[in-house]
Amino acid sequence: MSVAKVIEIVASSEKNFDDAVQQGLAEAALTLRGISALEITNWTADVENNQIVRYKVTMHIAFKVEHNTTTP
Length: 72
Known about the structure:
The protein is of the alpha+beta class. The chain has one helix at 17-29; strands at residues 4-13, 35-48, 51-64.
């Protein structure tokens, strides 16, 4: 049996949406093991002077639940 946990994060980039996704995944990978999937749930952008200045993505990241196999 396999069980996954899902968390929600928001990531941003001044370059583009793809970079925001990559930055978010890279940051999540620093503290999560076994990332197996991600889902983009929202795409937004900050606009100044009719120009996009920051791209933002909200994403769900799934990772495998690990069980402690040692018993005290």
